[in-house]
Each structure stands twice: as structure tokens, then as C-alpha cells.
Please model this.
Amino acid sequence: MSYFKVLGFNKEPFSTSPDPEFFYLSKEHETALTNILIELRLKRGLSVILGDVGTGKTTLSRKLVQDLKEREDFVFHIILDPSFENEHLFLTSLLRNFEINVGNYIQPTILDLRESLERFLFQKGVSENKTVTLIIDEAQKLNEGSLEILRVLLNYETNEFKLLQLVLLGQLELHSKIMNIPNFFDRISFKYTLNPLDFDETKEMIEFRMKQAGYTANMHLFLDDALKEIYQYSRGYPRRITMLCHKAIKNLVLKNRFVVNADMVKELIDEEIKSGWLRRDLLLQKNSY
Model:
């Protein structure tokens, strides 16, 4: 029997996999998702979501994909790692993933690839009235050549709308990259920065994930003092919250305990400190309270 079933869960409640069913929509995540969907429906072109490591960008992208799958008028693709060495590889990847026929070219040039992509965008966007959407996670990995390709693709438009809808989700260093390309920055229709959760949202996120995993018992597994410790340690970053909660409920099973209290959370954090696996910034934070 899996450890989480011992505690009354049907699924693992604190997996770090980006499962949209376990995505807690904080106010900021909901704002970001709602605005992205509006931008896509209006076909305005470029949306950029920034956030520090662990703020939920990847899970947000999966939630967006889940929503788009329910809409028959969308043609979309998501790139999880946009580390392309050159423009030719990037364009080739786009055409392959959108299942675009390059034609009879034996060795198509960059111009050939661009023209094939442009024909595809006009066919889908104008003739078939589809919304072609490209979502790029880890967008801070885009190099200047790839960003230039995206800038050119955003130029493909009718008198009424952009033919390609582009959603970039990246870490904060993406900001400086974009700021250094003014004619790319000027094309951003919606920009947003995700911040960590506050204490109430941290508590709600933990409760939400437990409920999604099938927990129905009246007993609270996490006491209030434990939740405060989790928040102080995690600073409201969803990934850190998830990982610490996973360790806590696993500890319940291993040590035959019934609830997670503040002492248990402190024990888990102290174990990380002693093992040398706690990041320096978190260690300094731990020493400050």
C-alpha cells in the first residue's frame, strides 16, 4: 500500500509534477490565467508571465494547455525547453510540432521555413478561423536568434488580429533579455509577474491539494503552528510548500504519528541543515526567525 493511502488519500497530495488538477489558483495565478485567455481570444499576440523559481509558472502553463484542449477553435503547441542552438533548428522544431509541410525542399533555408510557417498561419487563422497558439515554458532560455524569430512571427497579421498567439513563461532574467530588444518589448500585449503566496493562500493551497487527493477525514493533518512554520520556511513559494508538506506526511507514516505540528516541521528543516542540502538563502532566512 502506498504511504499516502495509509493517511486516507487516493492520490499523492504533494507531488511536484505539474498536474493541473492539483493547481491551486491563487489570486495572482487566476489573474494571469484569465488575462492570458482573454488575450488569446482577442488574438492580440504576445503575453509574458515572469516569476521566480518555484512560483508555479510551469503548472500554470499546464493549466492553460488543459483549458485550450477543451476549445475546438485552437491549434496549439507547448515548448518545454526552448534551448535551440540556431534559428534553423528552432524553425524546424516549430514546423515539425505544428505538423507543417515544408514542401519539396531537400535542404530548406531559413527563408523557406519562414514562408512555410507563414502559409500555415494564414491557412489556419484566416481560412479555417483557428487560433494558433505557441506556449513557451522556461522562456528565459531563449537566445537572441530565437527571440528575433518570434518577433518576426508576431508581424504576421491581418488588419484585425495577429496570426500567431505567443505566451512566454520565464524566470526573472527573461525581463532583461526582452528589455534589450525594444521592438520585441513593444509587442507585449499582457505582462505579469507572479509573486509568492501569502499565509492564507499557503494554508488554502495545502488544504486544496489534500482535498484533490481524496482526503475527507474531519481531522486536520496540519496544525496551525505547523502551517506557520511551513510558510516561514517556504516564504510562500508553491514548490517549497509542496516539497516540505510531502516530507511531513511521509514522516507521519514512518514515525507512526497522527498530525504534523511545528516541532515536526522544525525537525525536518533541521535535518536538511545538518545534511548540507538547505540552500544558503533559506538557511539565512531560517536563522532570522
About this structure: Residues 137 and 147 are 14 Å apart (CA to CA). The chain has a mean pLDDT of 92.
